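Same chain as my last thread, 583 residues:
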Amino acid sequence: MPFTTPTRAEAQESLPPASSAGLAAGAAPGMWRDLALLLAACLGLWAWTMGMWDLWGPDETRYVQVAKELLERSDHNWLLLTVNYEPYGQKPPLPFWAFAAMLELTRRVVSTWTVRIPSVFMGTLAVLLTYLLSRRRFGRPVGWLAAWLLVTSPLFCVETATARLDVIFTGFVMISMWAWLARRPGEPLTRARVLLYWLGFLGGFFTKGPPVLLIALVPLAWEAWRARGARPLREVRLAAGLAATVALVGGWLWWQTHTAPAGFVEHQIESATLERLVNPRLHNRPPWYYLESLLSDGFTPWALFLGAGLIHLWRRRREPLAEWPVLRPLLAWLLPLFVFFSIIPGKREQYLLPMFPAMAILTAWYFETALRGRAVFAWVRRLLTVVARALGLGMPGAAVFFARRADVAQKLAMDLRPIHLAVWVAYGLFLAGTAWAWRRARTWGDAFRLVIICMYLGELGVFVAINPVINRAKSFRIMSQTIDRHLTGGPRVVGALGDTMKPELQVYGHYRMVDMDSNPAILSRQAAALPPVIISEPKQWKKAAPALEPLGYKPVFEGSRRQDYVGVYVRPVPTAPADGTRK
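reply #2:
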């Protein structure tokens, strides 16, 4: 979807009226047109592409497997989650209900397109609310740009097209922040907004748990400290909201204590929640990890301008800016939490996603305030011209190479088709053509417009012609289908040797996995009860082979390098001849 710079008249547009009724009645020119264009951009990027590749990695597959078991279990206890039919306490239940509802739409068959709908819906909602919030407080140009910065942020864009929880969580956080901040300074917070604030808060809690306490309440606490009083806290009915939260969470935990094994809830609270933040063995990264992430593949290239904007605000901290009443909550939304997540040892770049809307709004405000009409640096134009030319030549060159060397693509487990190569060539030619536009770019407004167009089309190209190409190397669907074919009759149970009790090996199949000991002596004693299909890593199979190979187990599938060469081993099912004896 092309990005267009607002006209001068639109850039000077006054703030919309305070009431949402006036806004809905059309008092804000162009709002519905902008929303329609942003919705089309989101759907054009995610809605038709998200089913072109399978569920990847442990997170997507685990979450969908948990949802599958919610539907398959006979106890119908939707407040207690399980994975491999063992209690699972790492996450609250709300997103798994959504995934289960999507599975019901496809008659419990795992459809990648369907199970990613909740994340795409909440990601799109986050984009639209980012536009509405920043437009209400800063005017249309900031809102329009902030929404596009969020859409084209690499991490946000990629994570939205997944069946993970972080973008769903971001959407709930954005609901709360929109309800609280999308009003004029001094305008009372209506009951409807208070209710929406707490619905977003509860949705966030039942998606990712206690982190929502930091993300949603720290800006409130900051405003209360500034006001030297509790007015901001009373405004959102903090006591009533927290009481309702405690009641709902307490009821959920109480129910689990009566349905889960003893000690499960205590482990869930202590280990699965607090320990994930402070345990150095879980995703341990250095303090500067998030800075590297934002500058590399997280919020690039907008992170550079976000940093400049924060410096700009620091220098103007003594000035009576009219925008301070909403800039301060945005800064409180971003900076304390960024410092907190940087200090704790357990880090994942997805933890920052709930702060991306604030980053986009602050960056857009800085751009409209200080950069839009200023001349872009000559060295920036030259650098981007060189990059455009290099990629413009490199991508068609790569397409020609793989078209002539199909053996290399096969060795790399790449499913290259002519349509994929055509997309590579088309995008390369487009980038080569932008080199001419870069030479003519004179202002930062021209530069931002070109970068947004290139990034949007590049992200679309990744979804259409990169992810499907590498899917076979990262998906276990074929392995699961192989196992299903060999489970003919009897209990659908698969043995797992070594570290193979993984949801990615199970989510696309219709069987249950059981953990097995690789000790040959133990396996020999259990020979009669061993399942007909076993999954194993090479080292574990080598250890167990003396007991399993004499039983007739033979390899029928071996994964690729990215799948750690996990193999599937099958033994023939004994048949009964006509005389009634077994052989």
